[in-house]
Amino acid sequence: MVDKAFETLQSYDWGDDRGALQPIDDALVATQHHAAGRKDLEDRLIAVLQSNATRNGKDFVCRKLKVIGTEASVPALAAMLSDANHTHMARYALESMPSAAAGRALREALPKLTGDARVGVIGSLGVRQDESCVAALASLLGDEDGLTAISAARALAAIRTAEAAKALASAKPHRAAPRAIADASLACAETLLAAGNKIAALAIYKRLSKYDPPKLVKIAATRGMLACAAK
Amino acid sequence: MNQAHKKPSRRTFMQTAGTVVAAPYVLTSSALGRSDRAPASDRIVMGGIGIGNMGNGDQEQFFTRGDVQYVASSDVRKGVRETAKAKVDAHYANSDCQLYNDFRELIARDDIDAVHIATPDHWHAIMVIEACRAGKDVYCQKPETRTLREGPLMVEAARRYARIVSGGSQRVLEDYHNVVDPCWNGELGEIRSINVNVGPLSQPCNLPAEDPPDDIDWDLWLGPAPWAPYNSKRCDGNFGTNGGSWRSYIDYSGGGMTDWGAHHFGGATFAIDVREMQPKQIIYNDTAEGKYLTYKYPNGRLLYHNRPGKGHMEVEGTPDEKREAKPIPTYKGTGGIYGDFIECVKTREKPFRDIELAVNSVTVSHLGIIAYTLERSLNWNADTQRFSRDDEANRYLDRARREPWQL
User: Fold this and answer.
1) Hey, is B62 helix, strand or coil?
2) Is residue B28 predicted with pLDDT exceeding 80?
3) For residue B310, how far is the Cα from the chain centroid?
4) Spatial CA neighbour of B107 closest among B85, B71, B134
């Protein structure tokens, strides 16, 4: 049954019977506590990614690797990041993996990618709160592609460490990014304040208030300063 | 000409501005207000995003209010947009309602105070957060979130920019009086538990490719969801959850568990007064009578899901030991949940289904889906918004969004 399901993946297309793949779903549940069985399944899923299976077949595999993928899956997924048809589903698996190798693969892909694929990887690094990529993200705040710059700001907002806040403060941003940078700075300040770092938070709020920001940001920064005073 | 709003050129803008300056200024009854209509300066200027099906009803609830000026609609379907415009324009007897394919253009308008959102669920978080960043107050249909990670980010955006953000389940307050009232007025004594029967979970979608109609922007309909070919059932907005609508499918919805779950869990957590917290433990029970969940709250109260032998919204208490009655929270203003939102936009109070409370109730649905999927119990840390020492469950906190979408 499982063998037949893996065979089906090679030509699996939209409109085909989803039930034909159920044996793979069942095997994943059945091997929940059997490491060897899981390893075997993961190896077979990886082999599909490295084959000429259809896009939909590979999408199915990425959905499964999101749930069970280990370091062993990372090279096959990383190889898909530059492919416009597969980059999202590769991240779909990599973004959720606790493996450090998954984060490393996303970081290493960053300088090699452009356009939407790079924007996607930036977002995934943010979701993973990968502190080690703060400098790389900071360098993208002034990227000539406005969407890349905005995405980098959003990712730094998700990481929201003191280092992320510093990177945002010293950015020479793309003209499309100041609002995203202000929003990200506010996020950092909120987290710093919640962690008891009132001085760092206050510095961010004061900086944001200084340069005639949009009214919404100014109000948020003023409220932040009041919150610092109350702490 | 396509009714989607075209950004005016600088030349067009200057011509329009000149016309306005040259025209005599006439104060109309509409501008001054009538007995049923607030003066223009007191009206909340609104737009709608996702205005088919549920959004269509929401739109009507808002534009028929005398204290709302409804000026814009956004939908990825041209036909839906045009139908919406016809209704709004007929109501105001003008042709002012502007249409947008892309919600970001509507949100970018400085003259709009508030938006209502009724897109498929996979869009909610992005739109709510973007609207807050743009300074809009938001009424968002339930279920407000599609993943656990989205909820706190929506609350955070609302609080950061001091926005009024209301969830959109009218049933929480309006449908369960027979359960809520005896709990709050002390009749049932010390409340121990409540049971909710709801389902099903959503399913994977593998519908065949169809030719998309000319009037839909399919890529924008999918947005952050995985790419898939157009199929009319994949994007149908009907309220079923058995395969003929987007509500049936994992990429866009949690199925009945989140769709009706937002109502039922919202009502149940309201009844037993745990709306302001999240469960700390979800116990997966696999019995001869069936599978069910027991959610344990930090205050000891229990919420069951599909417990065999229990009725829907059945409460366990100590009716022999009555308790003192507590005032039951309710809507502000007039006009149900819509009026509650508009009143709060004016007063800046929190609405009945404030986004934080909405997120808490939909979190119950998401936690349950993960427990059923993994077929085991879970420990949820509401402070960190993660499962405790549980890498496997933490993989379900969120899903990578299709580029270029990001929260």
Assistant:
1) helix
2) no
3) 29
4) B134
Task: Say what percent of chain B tops pLDDT 70.
Answer: 91
In chain A, where are the structural domains located?
1-99, 129-231
Handedness of CA A90, A95, A98, A104 (dihedral sign): positive
Exposure letters A180-218 (e unless 16+ CB within 10 A, then b): bbbbbbbbbbbbbbeeeeeebbbbbbebbbeeebeebbb
CA distance B137 to B145: 17
Give the range among B17-21, B69-73, B243-247 with minimum mean pLDDT.
Answer: B17-21
B282 forms bridges with which residues in the sheet? B295, B378
Collect all residues of chain A within an 8 Å Cβ-Cβ radius of residue B209. Answer: 14-15
Q: Which of residues 78-137 of A touch B (CB under 8 A)?
A: 85, 87-89, 91-92, 94-98, 116-117, 119-120, 122-124, 126-127
Which pTM was predicted? 0.94
Cβ within 8 Å, pair A219-B161: yes
Which residue, among B72, B149, B60, has the nearest Cα to B359 in the 3D structure?
B149
For the segment B37-42, the average pLDDT, to the nearest whole number, is: 86
Taking contacts as CB-CB distances below 8 angstroms, the residues of chain B near A187 are 156, 160
Which pLDDT value is given to residue B31?
57
CB A224 within 8 A of CB B161: no
User: Collapsing DSSP states into helix, strand and coil, what is residue A181?
Assistant: helix
